[in-house]
Amino acid sequence: MNQPFIKQEKIRFQHVDYAGIVFYPRFLEMLNCLVEDWFEEALERPFSKMHDPRQSRTGQGQTNGIPTVDLKVQFKKAARLGEILTKKLWVKNLGSASILCGFSFEDEQGKTCLEGEVTLVNVAFQENKTDIKAEPFNEEMKEKISDFIKND
Length: 152
Description:
This protein has helices at 24-42, 47-50, 139-146, and strands at 5-10, 64-65, 68-75, 84-94, 98-106, 112-121, 123-125, 132-134. By secondary structure, the chain is of the alpha+beta class.
């Protein structure tokens, strides 16, 4: 079994509501940060290069991205201001242009605060940016992603 991608995050005032617990949309922002960090740190494909016009094939703008096309989340317990969460991401299925990832956020006692699945798709934008279509991952990227496949 391969290891998940793991990051820690401290719950800050910006994350919480009046009751001092994480407001649920902030969890989704934390998930997006986890995906972005995974692409940059583990897959060596930073969003800053994906979304930089100088990095595109035409030099005219963004030509690819990794949008979320499906998201399932179960909130298990509240996370509170000052706590440190351990965020984990792994691959459940790698398609030609898509990745089904599992994720969990755990508190300092190892209790799950939320868990779920997110489906990401590698897409290509046409020059006019109105046409978006799935584009298969190259072999090098598939190999890097495969390092995070966890077989249940």
